[in-house]
Predict the structure.
Amino acid sequence: MIFSSIEFVVFLTIVFALYWFVINKNLKLQNALLLVASYVFYGWWDWRFLFLLIFISGSNYLIGLYMDRSENEKKRKLWLTAGLVINLGVLGVFKYYNFFIDSFIDFIGIIGYDLTRSTTRIVLPVGISFYTFLSLSYIIDIYKKNLRAHENLIDVLLTLSFFPIILAGPIQRPSTLLPQISSKREFEYAKMVDGLRQILWGMFKKIVLADTCGANADYIFSNHTTLEGSVLVMGAVFFAFQLYGDFSGYSDIAIGTGKLLGFNLMQNFAYPYFSRDITEFWKRWHISLTQWFRDYIFLPLSFSISWKISTEKVGFMKTDMFIYIVASVITWFLTGLWHGANYTFIVWGMIHGVFLIVHHWQGKPRKKLLKKMGTNNNNWIVVGMETIVTLTVVLLAWIFFRADSIHEAIAYIRNIFANGIFSLSILNLRGRGISSTLIDASIAIAVMVIVEWLQRKRQHGLEIQHYPVVLRWSMYWILAFICLIYLGNERTFIYFQF
């Protein structure tokens, strides 16, 4: 069941009606309904994997209880270790078994031994990376005493399997979601209306923007050896907006759905393509994942390294810079690996890690240079140049993210500069086999950029309650009509594979 399907509309309508108009006075029944709805929603994909979700969330419920009740630090660590083994073990087997087995066979082949590849392939359960990270947050926060273990089984199971966020986020921390689940929720008309607006904007970004851009990106990436460089650049742009529309559209629908049920879910995207530098980009893109890796990997790792170094320098490098580099490399390696069992994702992560290190390193020299030039950080030329550089780096990294192999990504980039990067053949693509959605995709990109630029200081593109009534409703009907036109050709959300 995907958000952009008729099945989901019917499902959500039934849940909403029962939730607010039948059992609205009983919090326990409301939470029980949401838990059943979450299991139906997840089991719709493959009911067999529902048992895995229940096992993971149930195990973490018990581990959290035993850990919280234990006053012995050694026992607390043992329970935490058990939780890490269960969560990371399940994630490792289902997501990385095929990757590591194939990598091992390739390595053995390099040193002269030929091993037969296993025909056994483990199917990846949809959303496993997201609900595993939710569960890890729960037990780690209990261990750190940032959260108390909750006695109510239904509340905890719902926290770790809430249907709007279970498949592709946002990765809402249990420390902020569990208190909302365990507290009575009131029907707020303004919140419901805003939720519907955000769902509509998310639908537009998914159905119209992402799916039309995806058709063109697929064609260009599949034929990159025969197309000119200018076309390949356009292919990278199409994929960038496909991914943004697909993932941020999902987040908008999830957050809007949460509002319909009385929940406040965290913002997951804050107009990232308007970022002026790579650090700002990662404060705006997939915010919940960035904060997760910052709080549970980067900061603990940095503190751990700092305690082991007592000198001001490590070799020729200042200690704080050395710590930042080591922690960043490890964090971004794991970030890439989290996205998928392919070397392309690791390279993608390392590209961002390297440029973040460079940006961190040049902070002070940059300030001195700008001062000597008699300008400042807010000069429009400086901002414009930095934004262009940032988008270039992001587009370059997206090519690795999209490619099936490192070799294919390098070939794609090489062909950009080898095959007429400044040609205008992009204007003649319609007659060369590319999808007829070329113009549609270009218009969708323009509409999205204009709307989100105007709304860049708000939570989402359709937060327009301050606009005149006639203008608001005209926008709603136009967007809804456009979505209906494109409905039926929608694709599965990209991040379901992660």
In short: The chain has a mean pLDDT of 88. Residues 73-110 form the longest helix (38 residues). Residues 20 and 98 are 45 Å apart (CA to CA).
